[in-house]
Amino acid sequence: MSRFHVEIPLRWADLDAFRHVNHARTVTLLEEARVELVFHRAKAQGGGEWSAGLLVASLQVDYKQQISYNGQAVRVSMWVHQVRAASFLIDYELRTGPKESDPIAVTAQTKMVPFDLSAGRPRRLTDPEREFLASWADTESDPRGAA
User: Fold this and answer.
1) The domain 4-134 is classified under which CATH number: 3.30.70.360, 3.30.230.70, 2.40.50.180, 3.10.129.10?
2) DSSP-assigned states of every residue in the chain
3) pTM reported for the whole predicted model
4) Where are the domains of the chain?
5) From the first residue on, what is the mean pLDDT of each consecutive set of 10 residues in the chain (147 residues)?
């Protein structure tokens, strides 16, 4: 089991009128973390060039507690499972602060689909992409309890 961890700084603009990070900004924090994994880390490890086309086919977000702003970063942990011919799932745990011991505020999941922009349709995962995804696989954990 390998999880990818990244710290994303919170910004004052992430807050809503109730002084906690609102839904749209939470989804943006997850997106920023995902970009680090599937674009930057994948490219650095020779695991594909998804900047040429990768879509979010679905998104599920479950809130466990509010994220208040104290000038801190949040920690996002991600792992991959259910790698199929032309899709894979990324699971997320977003913590209220930068430490592994900080409470989990959000669990989420995105179904990702490689996409051929020039052809205008989904495409199959390449072998290097599959190898990269396997390095971040966690077949034992799913934040919603489904394996």
Assistant:
1) 3.10.129.10
2) ---EEEEEE--GGGB-TTSBB-HHHHHHHHHHHHHIIIIIIHHHTT---GGG-EEEEEEEEEESS--B-SS-EEEEEEEEE---SS-EEEEEEEESSSSTTSPEEEEEEEEEEEEETTTTEE-PPPHHHHHHHHTTB-SS--TTS--
3) 0.90
4) 4-134
5) 91 80 92 94 83 93 92 95 96 96 97 94 94 85 46
